[in-house]
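## Example record

The block below lists the input lines for one assembly entry, exactly as stored, with component labels intact.
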Amino acid sequence: VKIEKIGEFGLIKLLRKKIFSKDRRIIVNIGDDAAVIKSSKDKLLILTTDALIEKVHFDLKYCTLLEVGWKSLVANLSDIAAMGGTPLAGVVSLGIPKKSEVGKVLTLYQGMQKAGKKYNCPLVGGDTVFSPKGLVISIAVLGEVKKESITTRSGAKQRDLVCVTGDLGLSQFGLELLKKIPRKTLKSTWIKKHLLPEPRIEESQFLVKNFRINSMIDISDGLSSEINHIANESKVGAIIYEEKIPINPLIQKNAKLINKSPLDLALNSGEEYELLFTLPEKYQKKLDSIKDFKISVIGKIVSAREGLKIVGKDGKKRNLEFKGYTHF
Amino acid sequence: VKIEKIGEFGLIKLLRKKIFSKDRRIIVNIGDDAAVIKSSKDKLLILTTDALIEKVHFDLKYCTLLEVGWKSLVANLSDIAAMGGTPLAGVVSLGIPKKSEVGKVLTLYQGMQKAGKKYNCPLVGGDTVFSPKGLVISIAVLGEVKKESITTRSGAKQRDLVCVTGDLGLSQFGLELLKKIPRKTLKSTWIKKHLLPEPRIEESQFLVKNFRINSMIDISDGLSSEINHIANESKVGAIIYEEKIPINPLIQKNAKLINKSPLDLALNSGEEYELLFTLPEKYQKKLDSIKDFKISVIGKIVSAREGLKIVGKDGKKRNLEFKGYTHF
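Predicted structure tokens for the full assembly:
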């Protein structure tokens, strides 16, 4: 069945039954002019939005609508995590071609819903419009954060440790493989991080509760680009040690398949959704004691005058080139 | 200068300087992963989103980028008003072609900014991405509302008065003229409501403070469509009196220019952004005493069994046909 057949209100009715959920925080959800949500009394609000456009941010030749839906919400949840917060609710603006199959639109929403359920971010409403060319997905997420837990890009201080969660490089590796090689011949472990990334909400909550985090950002455009943002906003410099960068083990061996070096991938892979953060050096030991998830200390914050450097395995210091993803 | 020349970060820098504002409620704004906002302690939150796509929702042949920006925010502000709330902050997802002129993108944002300033809704962040074909604008607005002031679509009760703010029909009249006739030959009063509509935030605040409003909705798809939403959600029917519908005086005389009847326009014109609401009949006198803005009692709520009717000037009752705007 095509969307134009059931019409706008038919679609809303379907989404209301299947997708949009109500929990104790949601006072009014889809089916009204706007959603009404209850937040905690002592918290501040976080608002963020991200857009994904077909053929620009994703290609249905190599990813499913469920994966696109999942990632479109995760990109926003990762921003909430980067601010030290937790999600409250999301709204979806969706542009779809008239000839879209209802089942396919539902699958896209189910991807969002699945991420929303896993990370406690119910979808509460939105706007579905006609798009003359391809899918256009824009999601906004509302979150909340304790005042003392807010982690901005601008709080890094000299001598801070520079840390990163998880490991890096796999997302771009997966994307480049998908562009070159039929998906069914690829190992699922190679492409999973690109297709179904996870926002580091739990990790962020653990960090803001147990440490004084001076600055934090999520890695959506690549480590080199994000460290540059922190340095600019905080008016500091940073030194990164190549040997300490947590390169994903799969790409250590296989980066040559896409003619890249593992280091290049780890420095510049976008859509990793890991957290990059800085905190006072006194926490070194306490960081080492974290067992529930992986954290690597990869460098330190220095003065702005010293700039952004990377120290190679040969011990030589070079300028850190910034080659992350940009939209234009 | 084209966008691709200054790049994504050049654009963000420019917007940060010129567009995105910070007031006492805004703790963190553009330039971080997400915005952080303070809300009032005793209030609930409202979240809404609306998307506008070039050639579907607007055509730059007959409207300016400033007007498009203005309207894209107003559509959201109107939803906040319809819930009985006031805006807190907005975020913008914008898809733009690579060859866009920086000055033009800035003008679009300035339209949003102008509406944001007038209606106290600062823009606090967003996401700017590449769109392969035309502008794609999606805005999400966060608002707040007192628990006792929430006005949904589902609270209408039998014997309620059905009321509408302002007058109706002019928005579609303006749009149809713009499609047919060069803009410069048109009177500005004919096209102003279509191009620069106003959200009824002040009116909504006055209403929820001074009356018990049982249901409310904004007229974005046309009166006939919106009364249908209230009836469905509230499980009631309604009778509307033709002679009481506040038809805009300009279209009374000129509707023939576009081969429509004034009544047809008043019933089905979308993007009016007037408020349609219902309240107990005991308020009739108090409504009459409102001097600051126009309110018309156009009918009453009846049982669901009686359906949706319109009583003509001849006194005859007909079914109210629903011909408002739908996206598919």
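The CA atoms of residues 219 and 226 of chain B lie 6 Å apart. Chain B touches chain A through 73 residues (CB under 8 Å).
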